[in-house]
Design brief:
- By secondary structure, this protein is α+β, with helices and mostly antiparallel strands.
- It has one domain (about 25-140): Protein of unknown function DUF192 (Jelly Rolls), CATH 2.60.120.1140.
- The protein has 3 helices and 7 strands, in the order αββαββββαβ.
- It is globular.
């Protein structure tokens, strides 16, 4: 009887764990010869939420926003509690713009030109890593096709 109860508890635990919302996929990116791992925002819903409501982010962490087509992008910091920097990246994988983003600021932070990706990281990350406009990124992890 005791083994039966124990086994049932294990099964219930596994069931509830499988029902949990999956965390963001991650992607490995190389910039200037260094590898980094970032979360991804691939769907419209993931891009809408982004890093909202987070109280912290790993020192070299961040989120890569992936879009279906290259266009002028615009982000804001509604409900975002962490100071961030954003790099806009075009379809040639070139950083075309880097801007600072203040917590809870709802003003638009618009890319300097058409971009396919946006990479949000902790404030000061790009400066600390010596990453600047004109640098290229290399996405090492295959990304799924974005259909929305």
């Amino acid at each position: 009887m005791r083994n039966c109860i124990f086994f049932t508890l294990i099964l219930l635990n596994l069931f509830f764990l499988s029902c949990e919302k999956k965390s963001h996929e991650t992607v490995k990116i190389e910039i200037n010869g260094k590898e980094y791992q970032f979360e991804t925002a691939l769907t419209k819903e993931e891009r809408r939420k982004g890093l909202m409501f987070r109280k912290n982010l790993a020192k070299n962490g961040g989120m890569l926003f992936v879009f279906q087509e290259e266009m002028v992008l615009s982000f804001y910091m509604k409900n975002t509690l962490i100071p961030l920097d954003i790099a806009y990246i075009n379809s040639k994988f070139e950083i075309i713009d880097i801007q600072n983003m203040k917590p809870l600021d709802e003003s638009d932070i618009t890319s300097a030109g058409p971009a396919l990706y946006a990479l949000e990281v902790n404030e000061g990350f790009y400066e600390r890593q010596g990453i600047k406009v004109g640098d290229k990124i290399k996405i090492l992890t295959p990304l799924p096709y974005i259909s929305e």
